[in-house]
Each structure stands twice: as C-alpha cells, then as structure tokens.
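Appendix B, example 12.
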Amino acid sequence: MAGSSKKKHESKGKIVSYYTATWYDMYGKQHTGGHFKNRADAIKYGSEQENRQTSVANITFEHIFKPYMEHVLPKLSHTTYKTYNLYIENHLKKLFTVKYEKISSVDLQKFIDEIEQSRTPFVAQLCLKIAKAVCNYALKHKLINENKFLAVNNVIVPSPEKHHLTETQEKKVLNACQKLYPRYYVLLATLMGTGMRIGELIALEVTDINYENKSIKVNKQFTKGKLKDGTKNPARKIQVKEREVYITDDIVALLLEYTNSLPKGTKLLFPNKVNGYLNDKNLRIRVWKPLLDFVDITDRVRLHDLRGSYADIALQHGASIKFIQNQLGHSKAETTLNIYMKNNDDAIKKALEQMKGVFKNEEI
C-alpha cells in the first residue's frame, strides 16, 4: 500500500517541509520518490506507481524467476547456485516470455517431457525441482495464484549401477599405481584398506595415526573445498562423527615408512604439492580413471565405491558385520548390508569352496 514520508531541508536560510511517496513493486521491494507539497499528492503518486506494476494476468515466467534467484543467492552454496543458473539459462529460460496465467499444467508437463527426451531424466527432474521451488516462492508472495508445476509428474531417475572391485582387481590397480603414480600409492592402498570416504582420507593429519593401537582417528572431512568436522552446526548437512578405523599390519608398515619420508613439520597426511588439501576431483580425473583404463576395468567404478569393495573383501575374509559397520562409519548395520555389500564373483567362489562337501550324500 502506498504511503508518504515527511522531509525537511534548508532553502535560503529557511526550513522547508515536503513529502515523498513510498510504494511497493510486484516483488515486495519498497521504493521512495517524488517531491510534493502535501501528503495527499504523495500518496496519490505512490498509488499510481503501484497500479502500473504488472498485474497477475500479465506476469511472465521471467517475473517470477528473478525474485526467487535473488532470494536464494545468500542461502545456497556457490556450486548449487551456479548449477541452478546453468539449468535456467539452458532449459527453463525458454519459458521466460510466456505469461504464467496463459499456460496450463498440461503444457508444462509436455515441456518437462521434452527435456527428458532430448536430454536426460536427471536434467528434467532438476529443472522440475527448480521450477516448483520458484513457483512456490511466487505463490507465497502472491505473484501467482497457483503452482501449476505441482501437477507435473515427477521424473523417474534410474539409479546408476554401482560396481565394486574384487580383491584381484584391487591388487592390479595398486600394482599399476605403484608404476604410474607412485606418489599416490600409499593413499590409494590406505583408501582400499580402510573403507574410509575419500574426503575423510584427504582431511587426515599425521597425528591421527595411532601405530601402537593400529588405528586411525577419523573426525573430519574435506569436501567441495571445505573442511567439515564434528562441530555441531544446524546449517551443515554433513556432521562428521569421530570413530577409530583399524588398520592391518601391511597398512601400518606402509604408513610408517611413508610418514617417515615426509618433510619435518608436515601436518596433513596426504598433502598436495603446496602442503594444502588435495583436490578429490583432480585425483579422480588424473589418477583414478587412468588407472582403471590401464588395467582394462571398463565398469563405472568411483573412488567412493571402494568402500563397498572393502566391505565385500572384509566379509569374505571373516570380518563381522559389526566390525565392517564401524570401519565404514555407518550408524545402522542395514546400510552396510543393503547398500555396500555385493555378491560378487569372488564372494560366490569362496562361499561355494567353503560349503564344498557339506551336502554330500554320506551314511551317518
């Protein structure tokens, strides 16, 4: 609603009073302007400015996307905001000139379906997610009367198949790493031999290793350029709980030799060339993927999938579910069993060998 403010200024040695108009635009932003002799004229001017604002009937998609992106700018991470902008520019911007009230949910369903067919289900689902959030914000601030995207069906995004390495495959990768990238051999061996997350490994400090207890203290992660620890923060998605990860004599020997070779005063266990945190993306692209290619592993295997490989191999060698659960840092054993453990060729072969002769027909 338009209003006015009384102002004073000095003119020719006298104090002169005047009024300025205040009004709100369609985004809820307050504006001030004008120079009037009385309050009535100021309010009249402000009302005229408000009436000139775009009515609900003429609101375009551009009108509702702009205030939403301004609103979320300080709330989203830089990476997420950049992703949202990219998807808007490449896909959702095609709607910008369309009047919101003139389009139906059926038309929007076709629009999302076309993105799914021309691109991928993942792209279509993220576009739909952004559009729903934008329209919810516009609805809250009465820029529109309904969120038409709520009637659009969610896009089913198939989960990518996860592949774990067998014990034999891991040995091949480690042998290749020792030849091609010796600097990362101990890092990769520790990752395979502990089941830690790559972010946890990158954040390790030399003092986190307890050689006497044959364990590593895990209480932080370095992911997306930020160090995350166990400090309670409601805004933080990842809360790192401290745990002890136990290591075999082989890993103990490797780490002991490795840490003795580090320059005196080195803080991080696996620093980059300037003693900072390693970039996990560079590690994947420059070391991990070339290693898989070198040993002819064509399946999509992420560094994170080595956690599943660790669970498989540990179980095959007689480790208990409880032990593996602790190593991986899961709060529930179901997560360890249902997500990380797979019935791979090595597991099947070993199980059949152990059960050989159990059901043989013999007289008792």
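The first strand starts at residue 3 and ends at 11. Confidence is low (pLDDT under 50) at residues 234-238.
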